[in-house]
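Why should sequence recovery work at all? Because a backbone constrains its sequence more than one might expect. Tight turns favour small or flexible residues, buried strands favour hydrophobic ones, and helices have their own preferences. The token representation captures these environments compactly. In the example below, the structure is given first.
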């Protein structure tokens, strides 16, 4: 019985993209742990906590993505070797400055957002509202975190776009 009222075979493209997102999130998670452990300097306390908050959030999303794949009646990818091969996010060095770490996270966010858009497009093709809803919330969360991290990299005198003010 198909409790989802969706064609299992038509869900495969969505599952493929979800598994890629799962791989991306695993490497992103490890990058955050790396930064959390290795941050130094005057921003230590602020960034040490921020990186922890981000990796806790990433860990929760990893579990939710895997559970969504299982809900769609497929196996989630679950080997580090497979994650490294499938992910568009690369592991990063621990020997970065605080600003370089934040910029690296922003690059990871950009990759995650691109992959989330792929998931949404595939899910829309099969009217997979559960996946669309899940990933839509992730997009909102990543965009907000990216805004805050990007603000950290700016000079105090930087200005926002004031063309409508």
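From this structural description, the recovered sequence reads:
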């Amino acid at each position: 019985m198909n409790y989802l009222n969706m064609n299992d075979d038509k869900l495969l493209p969505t599952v493929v993209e979800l598994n890629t997102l799962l791989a991306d999130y695993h490497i992103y998670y490890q990058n955050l742990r790396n930064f959390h452990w290795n941050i130094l300097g005057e921003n230590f306390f602020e960034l040490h906590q921020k990186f922890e908050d981000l990796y806790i959030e990433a860990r929760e999303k990893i579990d939710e993505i895997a559970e969504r794949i299982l809900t769609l009646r497929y196996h989630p990818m679950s080997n580090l070797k497979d994650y490294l091969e499938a992910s568009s996010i690369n592991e990063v060095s621990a020997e970065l400055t605080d600003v370089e770490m934040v910029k690296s996270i922003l690059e990871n966010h950009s990759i995650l957002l691109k992959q989330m858009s792929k998931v949404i497009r595939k899910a829309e093709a099969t009217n997979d509202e559960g996946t669309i809803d899940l990933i839509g919330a992730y997009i909102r969360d990543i965009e907000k975190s990216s805004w805050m991290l990007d603000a950290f990299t700016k000079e105090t005198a930087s200005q926002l776009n004031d063309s409508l003010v």
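A few observations help interpret the result. The CA atoms of residues 24 and 87 lie 5 Å apart.
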